[in-house]
Amino acid sequence: MVVTAIILVITLFLVVFMVEMFVPISANMEFKDVCRNFLMKMEIQSGFNSSDYALLTERLTSIGFHDISISAPSSAKFGSEMELHITAVFSFNSIQRLFSREEKGFEMEFIKSAVARKVIH
Fold first, then answer.
1. pTM given for the model
2. Which terminus in the chain has less CB density within 10 A, N or C?
C-alpha cells in the first residue's frame, strides 16, 4: 500500500513537471502562428499599417504575451523585400523546487521576410 502511494506521488509529480515543460513550447507555437498570419497579411497589403500593429499587439496580449516589440515597414513597392520582426515575452509560474513556484519569462522572436505583392501607384 505504501509503495503504491509513493509510486502514485512520483508519477503525479512527473506528469505535472512534463505539462509545465510544454507550456512555453505551446506558447511559442501559438506566437509563431499569429505572427505568420500577420506576415501573410503584410505581404498581401505591401506593408503594415497602424491598425495591424494594434490588432497584433491585442492578439499577442490576449494569449499571455507582454513587452511586445514590432518592427515592419508601413509600405513597400511591388517586388521589394520586407522584414517583419516581432519580439515578445511570455511569463508563467513554474515549479522550481518541490513546493515552490517562481515566475519565469521566455523571450520569443519572429523574424521573417516577404516580398510585396500589391501594386502601389
1. 0.81
2. C
